[in-house]
């Protein structure tokens, strides 16, 4: 499914609060914060000239988030960043002086953090980031996971000392349960989705994501003409689209949001023109994107900054994992998890459709940017779907 953005707000300026959250000054602050983080390094921007030639465009670049901060996902930039910001703010309030990042591990700040508990619901990657952030500052974390989260992903979160709480039902059910219990116990919810009355913390999570698009714009030889980004609740798509709108203004690239067909909450929201909850059906293999209700902040941004919305099917997600693992001649192999290559899957579907190509003005001069949002965060599942292990893929080098 494919549709152009016909919302009345399309291409209008972002709300001031969103422009402040995702703007240049805020993103520079995120990068200053990252300089104090262990394992901090720019993730690679990978060129795929072979695939570009095969699909009739000038260039394809993939921002590979598979090694971000040792967590294997772009989510490492969001949850942990928000936790650390919240601890510094609490310390500022209690100590009566501005507490900056360089004092994060001081005894006074650590004592304050030890009395805080951070909670969230997760499909896997966001919870890992929140748990890591809590461990870094000496706080507690409680992570709520729904029935579809694999045991391997649960174990990857628990290794950061998190209390793991299983919830029957879907991701959205786990969000509700995390909120209920946190309100009862005085825990701080660090969610990557927003709802009426709860926007600032999800805004901080999204603010953390702006680091990856700033890196990509420094790394890319020429600005992209088209950007395809996958969406669950919409946080990463909105963060990237919003930052691009601010950075480029009227010259910004076309931005396309890609949903799993089985959990297309942003596509259906775009079709309706307002946030909608889509019904739960058969689970999607794109587990990190299996969300049935969009973030209100994300939709507010995407209604302005996205140009089109589309869906991809289950076989598209698996096909792109295999294509990245066994690439076109001359292209390097990339390990991308079940949800990681969905933006590229959207581009490939659009490139194969004359109608979509025309609607997006996509042709031989187009320069495509996508984000591989995760590596093999469940190595067993990756091997099952791709047929080889992540280690074997990385050992291949260029095709």
In terms of topology, how is this protein built?
Elements: E1 2-4, H1 16-22, H2 24-34, E2 45-47, H3 49-55, E3 59-64, H4 79-95, H5 107-114, E4 117-122, H6 125-137, E5 140-146, H7 151-158, E6 163-167, H8 171-185, E7 188-189, H9 200-219, E8 226-230, H10 235-248, E9 254-260, H11 265-272, H12 296-305, E10 308-312, H13 314-325, H14 342-351, H15 354-359, E11 367-372, H16 379-386, H17 390-396
Parallel strand pairs: 3-11, 4-5, 4-7, 5-6, 8-9, 8-11, 9-10
Antiparallel strand pairs: 1-10, 2-3
GO molecular function: diaminopropionate ammonia-lyase activity
EC number: 4.3.1.15
Enzyme class: lyase
How would you summarize what this structure contains?
By secondary structure, the protein is an alpha/beta fold.
Task: Give me some keywords for this one.
Diaminopropionate ammonia-lyase; 17 helices; diaminopropionate ammonia-lyase activity; 11 strands; Rossmann fold; 399 residues; TrpB-like_PALP
Descriptive notes:
This protein has 399 residues and is of the alpha/beta class. It folds into two domains: 2-68 and 201-396, Rossmann fold (3-Layer(aba) Sandwich); 79-191, Rossmann fold, CATH 3.40.50.1100. Helix content is 45%, strand content 14%. It contains 17 helices and eleven strands. The chain has helices spanning 16-22, 24-34, 49-55, 79-95, 107-114, 125-137, 151-158, 171-185, 200-219, 235-248, 265-272, 296-305, 314-325, 342-351, 354-359, 379-386, 390-396; strands at 2-4, 45-47, 59-64, 117-122, 140-146, 163-167, 188-189, 226-230, 254-260, 308-312, 367-372. The protein has a seven-stranded mixed sheet, with helices on both faces. Helix 4 (79-95) packs across helix 9 and helix 6 packs parallel to helix 7 (151-158). The longest helix is centred in the middle third of the chain and has 20 residues, at 200-219. 53% of the residues are buried.
């Amino acid at each position: 499914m494919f549709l152009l953005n016909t919302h009345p707000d399309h291409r209008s300026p972002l709300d001031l609060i969103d422009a402040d959250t995702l703007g240049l000054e805020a993103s520079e602050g995120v990068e200053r914060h990252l300089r104090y983080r262990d394992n901090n390094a720019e993730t690679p921007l990978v060129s795929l000239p072979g695939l570009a030639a095969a699909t009739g465009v000038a260039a394809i670049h993939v921002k590979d988030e598979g090694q971000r901060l040792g967590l294997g996902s772009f989510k490492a930039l969001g949850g942990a960043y928000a936790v650390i910001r919240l601890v510094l703010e609490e310390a500022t309030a209690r100590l009566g002086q501005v507490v900056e990042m360089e004092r994060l591990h001081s005894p006074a700040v650590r004592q304050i953090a030890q009395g805080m508990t951070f909670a969230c619901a997760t499909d896997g990657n966001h919870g890992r980031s929140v748990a890591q952030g809590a461990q870094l500052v000496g706080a507690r974390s409680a992570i709520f996971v729904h029935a579809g989260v694999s045991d391997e992903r649960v174990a990857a979160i628990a290794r950061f000392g998190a209390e793991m709480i299983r919830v029957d039902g879907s991701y959205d059910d786990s969000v509700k349960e995390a909120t209920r219990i946190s309100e009862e116990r005085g825990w701080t919810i660090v969610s990557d989705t927003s709802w009426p009355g709860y926007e600032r913390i999800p805004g901080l999570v999204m603010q953390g994501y702006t680091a990856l698009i700033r890196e990509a714009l420094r790394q890319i030889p020429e600005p992209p003409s088209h950007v395809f980004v996958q969406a669950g609740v919409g946080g990463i798509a909105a963060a990237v689209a919003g930052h691009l709108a601010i950075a480029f203004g009227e010259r910004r690239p076309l931005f396309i949001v890609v949903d799993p067909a089985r959990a297309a909450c942003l596509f259906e929201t775009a079709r309706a023109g307002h946030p909608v909850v889509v019904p739960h059906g058969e689970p999607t293999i794109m587990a990190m994107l299996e969300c049935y209700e969009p973030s209100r902040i994300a939709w507010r941004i995407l209604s302005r900054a996205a140009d089109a919305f589309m869906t991809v099917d289950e076989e598209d997600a698996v096909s792109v994992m295999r294509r990245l693992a066994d690439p076109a001649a001359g292209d390097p192999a990339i390990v991308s998890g079940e949800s990681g290559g969905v933006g590229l899957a959207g581009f490939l579907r659009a490139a194969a459709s004359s109608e979509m190509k025309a609607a997006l003005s996509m042709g031989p001069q187009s320069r495509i940017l996508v984000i591989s949002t995760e590596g093999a965060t469940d190595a067993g599942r990756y091997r099952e779907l791709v047929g080889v292990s992540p280690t074997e893929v990385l050992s291949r080098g260029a095709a």
